[in-house]
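Lab meeting, item 3. Inverse folding demo.
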């Protein structure tokens, strides 16, 4: 079987009973751990006004992660471009690429990644104009990172000439189509929105237009993977993520819950309809012992043809999270 590289998607989770400082320090420790295990990338995502996520200042955190490591690629999964002026993003990531050459990735998302009051606080309009301008903003951002050109009026310094690799992220067909049109690598957010995964990958590959930097399509698939010594132990750890998604169904957000301490698991905590909805959103999750997860990875790669997996592991206990990534690397 084709060996698929593994990468890490980390949200700097604030867990129940802890705080943002500990979450950020854990992310730095996890990045070092992932590097030692041979993971290819370590990405963090932009989210705002969420009690359970500490990665709001994404570029700042990426700088800390890159400074604490030496070889692993570090980047965004992603920066929500409607929240920012393209020039600002070019300057931030141009600075990172200047300090850490050859190690920075810039994944871009189209959604604002937050609610309407927070959009106001981010000084963005409440209309969907930012999302509608997404293709133009991507091209503008690419221009700022491109080599110097005579007559260019506005320049990103640092940034110009760094050509930071840009990825498009998506959870629908729109991102796949745009990534194909622009000739960019594509990452699908199937770790929380798996419904259109296969259709998006098919469209991306069928419509791909080769670019100078990316002559072939390259598809990364985001999954949840929780690995423990036994299937039963992994299933218990998984209940933290199940509870988080159940809270989303109920409009309740907060720190990542402790796992359910019960032999019945989630039984009795959700209705049949809630269970079905959570299981649909978490369909691209592989949970179990190393043997179980190895089989799951092989099946997912055979089904999707993924060029790379980026793996989220929302486990409450940090030692168990580290162990999960260790077992995953061996699997």
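The presenter then showed the designed sequence:
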């Amino acid at each position: 079987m084709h060996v698929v590289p593994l990468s890490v998607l980390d949200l700097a989770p604030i867990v129940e009973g802890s705080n943002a400082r500990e979450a950020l320090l854990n992310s730095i420790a996890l990045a070092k751990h992932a590097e030692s295990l041979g993971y290819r990338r370590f990405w963090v995502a932009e989210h705002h006004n969420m009690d359970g996520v500490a990665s709001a200042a994404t570029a700042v955190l990426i700088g800390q992660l890159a400074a604490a490591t030496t070889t692993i690629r570090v980047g965004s999964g992603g920066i929500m471009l409607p929240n920012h002026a393209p020039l600002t993003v070019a300057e931030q990531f141009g600075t990172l690429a200047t300090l850490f050459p050859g190690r920075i990735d810039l994944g871009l998302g189209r959604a604002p990644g937050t609610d309407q009051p927070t959009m106001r606080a981010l000084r963005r309009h409440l209309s969907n104009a930012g999302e509608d301008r997404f293709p133009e903003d991507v091209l503008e951002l690419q221009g700022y990172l491109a080599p110097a050109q005579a007559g260019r009026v506005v320049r990103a310094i640092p940034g110009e000439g760094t050509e930071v690799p840009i990825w498009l992220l998506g959870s629908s067909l729109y991102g796949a189509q745009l990534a194909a049109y622009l000739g960019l690598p594509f990452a699908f957010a199937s770790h929380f929105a798996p419904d259109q995964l296969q259709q998006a990958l098919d469209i991306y590959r069928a419509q791909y237009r080769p670019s100078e930097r990316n002559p072939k399509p390259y598809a990364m698939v985001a999954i949840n993977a929780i690995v423990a010594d036994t299937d039963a132990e992994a299933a218990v750890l998984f209940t933290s993520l199940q509870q988080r998604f159940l809270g989303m169904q109920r409009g309740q957000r907060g720190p990542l819950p402790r796992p359910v301490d019960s032999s019945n698991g989630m039984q009795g905590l959700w209705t049949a309809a809630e269970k079905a909805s959570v299981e649909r959103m978490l369909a691209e999750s592989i949970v179990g012992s190393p043997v179980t997860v190895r089989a799951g990875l092989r099946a997912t790669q055979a089904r999707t043809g993924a060029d790379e997996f980026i793996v989220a592991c929302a486990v409450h206990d940090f030692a168990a999270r580290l162990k999960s990534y260790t077992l995953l690397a061996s699997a």
